[in-house]
Amino acid sequence: MTPQNPGSIPPDAPPPGTPGTIKDPIVTLLLIAFTCGIYGIYWLYVTSTEMQNFTGDHSISPILEIVLVFVTGGLYGIYWYYKYFSMIPKMQAQVGLPVTDNTLIWFILMFVPIAHFYSVWSFQTELNNIYTAAGQQAA
To answer: For a 10 Å CB count at each end of the chain, is N or C smaller?
Structure first.
């Protein structure tokens, strides 16, 4: 997608909070695959927590998000991806990165076998770019 905002921080954008940890997207995908999705549940929790801390959005409840994934038999996980994919443009604006909204593309690819991995990889890569721009150093 083409950038909607060439890197300027809008005046109404709140300052970013604590950046999350830089994670290697390939390692994330391998851990999800090799643990048959168990690491994916942990990754959902950690990502929810980091995005909550960064955006200051306290309507996010990482524990509740995980409970809902289990209670709904995984259906809430589909909504989780859409919800968090759509937060990326706001976070990009907070740190002055060009805003690109790939929410719809990533979400559609979640339903395509193998392409699902591209969505997770791309999402984690964008989070890494945001956290790096916010001053977080790679761990």
So the answer is: C
